[in-house]
């Protein structure tokens, strides 16, 4: 008798199972990579918006101590900008020399927080120092 050559049904089922497992792992890693790319896109957009806002701060309107809020892209990104006088942590705040320096230009610390996503979602924060404009009273 002549022997038939070919694959048995069991071998074909095992081959399909291995193929299905390999494709599942491959598609899982691709979807994970797609999520990472999407997250990087969101962080990049938030960074570009923040850079634009920080660049325009103090240019379009005089810089003042206080807090402002807003959003970009129809509320997709929410921002909060706080401007407060800068306090150097290395200098003792009780020294009388610090009071004499207050009559000249002062530094302001800008703290910008950008949030996106559901609830608190993700957030990024930037800090920058700027000179506050001198007031006419400070020059006297």
UniProtKB/TrEMBL annotation:
Keyword Cell inner membrane: yes
Pfam family name, one: N_methyl
InterPro entries: N_methyl_site, T2SS_protein-GspI
Keyword Transmembrane helix: yes
Alphabetized UniProt keyword annotations: Cell inner membrane, Cell membrane, Membrane, Methylation, Transmembrane, Transmembrane helix
Similarity annotation: Belongs to the GSP I family.
Subcellular location: Cell inner membrane
Membrane topology: Single-pass membrane protein
Superkingdom, taxonomy of origin: Bacteria
Organism name: Stenotrophomonas aracearum
PROSITE patterns for this protein: PROKAR_NTER_METHYL (PS00409)
Protein name as annotated: Prepilin-type N-terminal cleavage/methylation domain-containing protein
PANTHER family: TYPE II SECRETION SYSTEM PROTEIN I-RELATED
